[in-house]
User: Fold this.
Amino acid sequence: MHLVTFRLDDGSSQLGRADGGQVMPLPGLRDVLDGIDYALAGGDLAARAGGDPLSLSQVSLLAPIPRPRRNLFCIGRNYAAHRAEAERVLGPRRAEQHPAVFTKVPEAVVGPGAAVNLYRDLSGQLDWEAELVAVIGRPGRDIPEADALDHVFGYTAGNDITVRDVQRRHGGQWFKGKSMDTHAPLGPALVTAGDFGDPQNAEICCTVNGTVMQRATTADMIFSVAQIIHELSLGMTLLPGDVIMTGTPAGVGFARTPPRFLAGGDRVEVSIPHIGTLSNHVLEV
Ligand code: MG
Assistant:
């Protein structure tokens, strides 16, 4: 099932099921968070659709979860080739036994078609990171790796937009440089876990103005989605609607020769088969 959250004329949001270029509204459910709560309570999302179908091209899509309840959980340096390109620029790092974890604030989330802000008085180093994003459905703590994927409600695409120089100048943590307004595009659809299939067998691609910058498969992750969920859940309960960004492949801007950062007017797109293309443009502010 492909779930989309879209804007209604009155400014509120509506959850819908996308199918063949149409969207069937799911009345009474505002977004994917509502859909998760409804499914957890035993509701049947597939049977909930009602009202007149809308044309997918005519609705204004929002992020599947326009405002997550908690910070987004993010994993850093999780593809070997990206780790290697970062080490070329920044120097060698210790081999990690555990995934690098940071967060982004929920207010950074925007949807497909939204502007990504370039804060020109702050930094010119605005960078892209295409990522597969897992959304938790069933809560849990100390989740065994073997059971971890049973806790996933679905998957979407994300762009872990990063202000590189700011990322590195606040005591070694990445929070500030990763959490600015508009710097967490998500979407366009959330594909439920059973329909998405194996999260370690997905292609992921990022283009800037149509030029491919990143192309990889999630098979190249150092820590799998199941391992990430296991580790995050140790001593810390994961909750329905938690958003987990699973890391980015090689090809980010700062590690290119010469470095390439996003400029006003650029279009940056993240594509994952079945989920679709998350397209955003850069706006200088
Ligand atoms: Mg990232």
Observations:
- The chain has a mean pLDDT of 96.
- The CA atoms of residues 2 and 191 lie 5 Å apart.
